[in-house]
Amino acid sequence: MEFSYAKGLVGQAAESQHAEVFTTSEDDSFIRAEKARAADLATGLLLPIIVDGMSEAVLEFYTTEPVEIDTQLQKVLESVAIQIGRLIERKRHLERIEKEKEFINKAINSLPGLFYMLDEQQNFVRVNQNLIDSMGYSREELEEMHPLDFYLEKDQQRMIEAVQQAFIEGKATLVSQLRTKDGKLPWYYLTGAHFHQEGQDFILGTGIDITDRVQAEQELERHEQLLQSIMDQAGAVIYVKKKDGTFLFVNDEFLKLFGLQKEQVIGKRDVDIIDEDDVQIMRESDLEAIETGKPVELEETVQFKGEKRTYLSNKVPLKNVEGFEECVCGVSTDITERKQAENQLRESLNEKEVLLMEIHHRVKNNLAVVSSMMQLQAYESENEEVTSELNNSQSRIKSMALMHELLYQSKSFSKVNIAENITELLEHISNSIQPKEIETELNLEPVDLNINQAIPCSLILNELLVNIYKHAFPEGQDGKLHIALTENDGNVVLKVRDNGVGLPDDFDLEDPTTVGLRLINVLTKQLEADLTYSSDEEETEFELIFKKMKIKGSASNLVE
Asked: What is the mean pLDDT of residues 305-317?
């Protein structure tokens, strides 16, 4: 039978935590007394049920006849109330344990990494869901497995030692690969901590997947090894140092040069390793690179073990590298042997230059001697034809002598500025032949010719000019002479124009009748040139066109 909750006697029993005995016919303070009498209930016993020290409920007993409750019976009933209270306490305690267990399970399974518990025999006592998902094994499979099953053979001893360390020292860490069910080998950072519970020892462990970090570190290490290998095999001294001269990096070539180990250099200043006088010069270029933010290239000399070595150094400021803003990277290549070879080559070239100058000087002098002999012979000869030919030959020799004079005065011994040669040749011919009032106009571009083209070109011009001065202008006639020299796309064009009497009717370049014309023909072929002319009563013009080339061999070959 259920009765509504009321205060009164029930409330007193709950509050006092003692039994209350009453009769329904006499005690109206019992709120359900009227209902109890209607149900023919006579005597009642109220027993409080105490849970965790508090009255949780009241247990009610009734008789149908008015009786006095036996003390023994009351004790039995009180014992029943006590047991009910204890049952309620136990049930609630178990409920709290289940909730705590559920909370712990949720917390463990929510951990981002692996969670596991091992006993002294290294059997799995507990694992979280993430371990199951990550390793790919079921809980049933894990119960049959040993932790070593997850490790490669090469890592198993390390794992055993780490577990032993955790049991002895209280904690341990391990970085290792774990083998999953599908054969993958991710990297994990594993921790283990020892604790003792109810006479047993356990290891509580966690694992964080660090595969990405390890792979990034391995990739970085590979790049560092590649960079170090490149620098060590570069054949140059490479270093990085601070503004104050403290070395932060050096390669093998640097260490070999000074006979040091890396730990003897890194963190040390340049003055601790290199001669102080040399350091001062190096510091100036270091500071220039750092302060201007621009690369610096220079030659540096290092005194080491009584020997001076010369280096070509390139210094680059590391302005965009975090942590190295006031540092400089130097790359120094040993050019000692090259400098020695350059000096020897320079000395050899100077000797050859002197020798060539002497050769050209002697050739010029010898040609001058031959020219003078021809001039003497011409003075002694009474034959006008012989005298004329001697004078012509003398002019040709003078043309070649002028070429060697220009070579002697030039910085180059293989080519000359033909424009300068034309000017001097014209002056020589106008002075050597009886002076005439001839107005000359020169339009000469600076054209450098190989000596093997310059000499035949000069000889052709000599023949043309001699012919003009001798035959184009009769006695008393004024004249104009125009010489033009141009170069276009590697083609040299020489034009000689006069306003003299013109060429004779029987003039034919293809069928020469004089030594001069035959010489012009031979030299034109030697140049592989085109020589054309035009002549009328007003003017005569010769045009010589040839390809500018580098020709090796003798300067002239007049024998066909």
From this structure: 83
Read off φ and ψ for residue 452, nearest 5 degrees: -75, -10
Amino acid at residue number 498: D
Amino acid at 212: D
Sequence-ordered list of residues with C-beta below 8 angstroms from that of 207, at least 6 positions apart, any chain: 113, 114, 115, 116, 131, 178, 188, 189, 190, 191
Distances in Å between the alpha carbon of 12 and those of 19, 36, 260? 9, 18, 97
Give the closest residue to 290 by CA, choosing from 247, 241, 254, 333. 241
Q: What order do you get walking across the sheet with 187-197 strand by strand?
A: 124-127, 114-118, 200-209, 187-197, 171-177
> At CB < 8 A and 24+ separation, what contacts does 21-24 make?
21/45, 21/46, 21/69, 21/74, 22/46, 23/66, 24/62
Report the distance separating Cα 509 and Cα 520, nearest Å.
9
> Could you write out the DSSP letters of every residue in 75-141?
HHHHHHHHHHHHHHHHHHHHHHHHHHHHHHHHHHHH-SSEEEEE-TT--EEEE-HHHHHHH---HHH
Q: Is 221 exposed, middle or buried (0-12, 13-18, 19+ CB in 10 A)?
A: exposed
Are 158 and 176 a contacting pair, CB within 8 Å? yes
Q: What 3-state class would DSSP assign to 381?
A: coil
Predicted confidence at residue 380, as pLDDT, reads 65
Binned at pLDDT 50, 70 and 90, residue 411 comes out as low
Q: How far apart are CA 473 and CA 254, in angstroms?
A: 80
Output the pLDDT for position 353. Answer: 60
Residue 185 half-sphere exposure, CB side, CA atoms within 13 Å?
Answer: 9
- With a CB cutoff of 8 Å and minimum separation 6, the contacts of 436 are 469, 473, 479
Alpha helices in 208-305, H assignment, sequence order: 211-232, 252-258, 276-292
Structure confidence by residue, pLDDT tens digits, 460-498? 888 888 888 878 887 767 788 999 999 998 899 999 999
Lowest mean pLDDT: which of 11-20, 224-233, 258-267? Answer: 11-20
The pTM of this model reads: 0.47
Instruction: Determine the average pLDDT of the residues in 27-32.
Output: 69
Q: Calculate the average pLDDT of the chain.
A: 81
135: number of CA atoms within 13 Å, CB side? 26
Instruction: Please report the DSSP string for 351-364 in residue order.
Output: HHHHHHHHHHHHHH
How far apart (Å, rounded) are the C-alpha atoms in residues 533 and 503?
10
pLDDT tens, position by position, 323-357:
888 899 989 888 888 887 887 777 766 665 665 55
Contact 450, 549 (CB under 8 A): yes
Strand order in 20-23's β-sheet? 20-23, 43-51, 54-63
Q: Which pLDDT belongs to residue 558?
A: 41
What are the C-alpha distances in Å from 326 to residues 86, 237, 267, 384, 538?
Answer: 78, 20, 15, 89, 80
Q: Domains of the chain, with CATH numbers? A: 9-105 (3.30.450.40), 111-209 (3.30.450.20), 233-334 (3.30.450.20), 344-547 (3.30.565.10)
DSSP class per residue in 130-141: HHHHHH---HHH
Residue 122: Cβ within 10 Å count: 14
In angstroms, rounded to a whole number, what is the distance separating the alpha carbons of residues 497 and 516? Answer: 18
